[in-house]
Amino acid sequence: MLRHVVLFTWSDDADEERREQTLAALRRLPEEVGGMTAFAVGPDAGLRPGNAHTALVADFPDVEAWRRYAEDPVHLQVIADHVTPVLAARTAVQYEV
Fold first, then answer.
1. Contact 58, 39 (CB under 8 A)
2. Global pTM value
3. Rg (CA), the chain
4. Which of 18, 56, 91, 97 has most Cβ atoms within 10 angstroms of its Cβ?
5. Which residues share a beta bridge with 60?
């Protein structure tokens, strides 16, 4: 199984409404793109200063399933429409579990 973890830090342009819209679009990915066996996305709990603003964790049965997700046109459109315009920083990792 492959785990995909992404941490997003939003720019100053990402007000609360925009963040909620972005989270909603990301939360639709399992039904609109699929391929994952588990999926969670949510805002930082605000327990420590300097944390990223949002985390996404998705599990895939194998690397090929993750590649299909990563290259899916719907996924890429969500990134283009909702993530990139308000993104200050992104960090990701994929690892075997």
1. yes
2. 0.94
3. 13
4. 56
5. 2
Q: What percent of the chain has a predicted confidence (pLDDT) above 70? A: 100
Helix (H) or strand (E) holding 45: none
Distances (CA, A) of 75 to 52, 59, 67, 70, 71: 21, 15, 11, 7, 7
Report residues of the chain scoring pLDDT below 50: none
**Residue among 47, 45, 71, 41 at smallest CA distance from 59:** 41
Q: Is 87 helix (H, G, I), strand (E, B) or coil?
A: strand
Q: Nearest 5 degrees, angle CA 14-CA 70-CA 97?
A: 100
Instruction: Compute the distance between CA of residue 63 and CA of residue 65 in angstroms, rounded to an integer.
Output: 5
